[in-house]
Amino acid sequence: MNYLFHIGNCVGLVLLQTTILKNWPHAAYVYDLSIPYVVYLSLFFPLKVSLPIVLLTGYFMDGISSGPFGLYMSIYFWMTMAFRRITGYLQINSISIIPFAVGIAVLAEDIILMLAVLALKGSYDIESATGQIIASHFLLAVITGPLIFLVMKWIYERRGENTDMGPSMEKGRFFWPTI
């Protein structure tokens, strides 16, 4: 049942991003909405739960978006692997880490997508608006990342779902600075 909930979330995010937000006039300035979900799953769920959902999200994103097939799936896979390694070195239950985690993930994805587009075009001329769009993605991710994480935390607490850190109801200091 938990897998169905995660699959529903990832399909909803992909459909929101690829159908509804594409018609919005400022769609170029909105980052990939699946990134905070991928980072959240990577940081707080076991690999056996997060990896299939992350790969499925990448598969849906590759199938619906106009990018080269397999690009999003590989980006999400390597992002998951990187954040799983980072959890061994950083204290992830601090709210101060979350904006930078989401911001770095969005920045890495934007750079990889920019390089893929440049390689497909055959020319390596970067348009002047590209830097502005990447900077807006990064700033928006740093600002909205903690808010999205708090909403996801609230949803998982309401569902009583377990994460890597134990049952979610037992994490009283989750997301708040520790002394």
Mean pLDDT: 81
Could you give the count of β-strands?
Answer: 2
Please report the number of helical segments. 6
**Over the alpha carbons, how many angstroms does the gyration radius reach?**
16 Å
Biggest sheet architecture? 2 strands, antiparallel
Structural class: mainly alpha
Residues in helix, %: 55-70%
Distance between the termini: 37 Å
Question: Shape from CA axes?
Answer: globular
* Strand coverage percent: under 5%
Describe the overall structure.
The protein has helices spanning 2-20, 34-44, 47-64, 71-86, 98-121, 128-159, and strands at 162-163, 166-167. A two-stranded antiparallel ribbon has the order 1-2. It is globular, with a radius of gyration of 16 Å. It starts with a helix and ends in a 12-residue tail after the last strand. It is built from six helices and two strands; from the N terminus they run H-H-H-H-H-H-E-E. The longest helix has 32 residues, at 128-159. The chain is 67% helix and 2% strand.
